[in-house]
């Protein structure tokens, strides 16, 4: 996903409050741990491959069921569904497709993330989303990206199985051509604006509208993303102006939501940015606090 | 996994080289990003559930195949196999089992990790593995742990399907009783030393010997861990005294290794510690470097 303005505001506030010298690490030759894990480790690569292996097996089986005339349902939530009462419409005779987010789902933005890790020397700077820098990155980063490990093989498998590959990203609609170029550069094939490539023209960071448009044409047998907003905007609902971090994590344990992961909804790991990297100590470690004695 | 002494030495060296004021963050109420993602986020929880959903479906199908008399192979590498030439022995009439790592695979060590994130105020301190503190944690943390999201349901499914649940961890064999207590506290059931619970008595952080012992008795249809050493010690081979970070990640793209993830080998995400959090800028971002202009 593209980082959202809420995170930006929070980070900017934090930055303003912090002493100027805190968190700088001009002396270190090592990126922060989460960058090491996502962009450089075998463990991170294997976790991504695991997600793509599961996705392609699932999608091929669902598409085969559809071709056999068995009932298959959309993995896009039905209109009016809630997270407490998820519902999914029948696909009818619409043809099978898989909908992918782009950034840190199919593409590793190594160029921009190198800069976030290194050139923004402080931790708070690397946390803050620089909206202007990202806009520039969308325009000139097309040849400085890598595929997420396993993405190319998964997309190839889907296309060979006659399953449409659709891209739905919160990159700006103004970067349509450059985004298609980035996907092509990474080996992910052709993305056609308005047909298989859908970007954010409203600037609101929401995806449900575009998901509904896609589901009018296609049987969306699977979706993949690195943020829960890649599955439903309902996951991004705020309470008292904040993301309800604890409640949101607990919601993953509900019978239906717990079941979706790896069975229609496929998550690519991203500890580097986004809504998974929010929350204060009371939210992240609410109990079990310990120290050596 | 338990953190290893190599990482400790590297972190200690880094710590010694860093100015005392660098990286301290006494002013922040937010844990580092990777702690937020793993211990507190919905995205982290969903990634874990996805891995466990894939594992239980895979293991149940493999066990069913075994019961039907179809040939099933061990997911423990055969003696003499290499990562370039992986090989797997037939299970014969051995009964099905799944082998799990414990720390950050089935258990979230929230007590100790809160301390790593908060009380060790600097980033380098939170990176360093404190061997003495961990030894104390093994002894008195049994009631300060949580299950990894999805772990309890997965272990329940396996046991109901008459698949043995075996624990193989690098926790010290001196902590056998406390480790069994921690597993029970988290809802993961009974672990019997020497039968279903295997810990490190040599202190060398290696697991292949115990894996071989387990595979003498059981048909290991799946393994799960947060570190590649949970699948084979071969992944931990050093070159010139260091982990070959780039080569190790690239190895994930080989046809056989790429295929294992989600199909016999199941990775739980852990960007917080271990061999996935190593590497300098040249290893993590070897190319594609960019800055806004």
What can you tell me about this protein's structure?
Two copies of one chain form a homodimer. With 293 residues, chain A is an alpha/beta fold. The first copy, chain A, has a single domain, classed as Rossmann fold, CATH 3.40.50. In chain A, 41% of the residues lie in helices and 12% in strands. Chain A has helices at residues 5-17, 33-40, 42-67, 110-119, 123-127, 131-140, 151-160, 176-185, 208-217, 245-251, 255-260, 281-284, and strands at residues 95-100, 107-108, 146-147, 164-172, 197-200, 218-225, 265-267. In chain A, helix 2 crosses helix 3 (42-67) and helix 3 runs parallel beside helix 7. The interface between A and B is large, with 101 and 101 residues. Chains A, B: Residues 1-22 form the signal peptide.
Q: CATH topology of chain A, anyone? A: Rossmann fold
Order of helices and strands of chain A: HHHEEHHHEHEHEHEHHEH
Oligomeric state of the chains present here? homodimer
Question: What percent of residues of chain A are in strands?
Answer: 5-15%
By CATH reckoning, the class of chain A would read Alpha Beta
Structural domains of chain A: how many: 1
What's the mean pLDDT score of chain A?
91
| Gyration radius over CA of chain A | 19 Å
For the largest interface, the chains and their residue counts are: A-B, 101 and 101 residues
Strand order, main sheet of chain A: write it out. Answer: 5-4-1-6-7
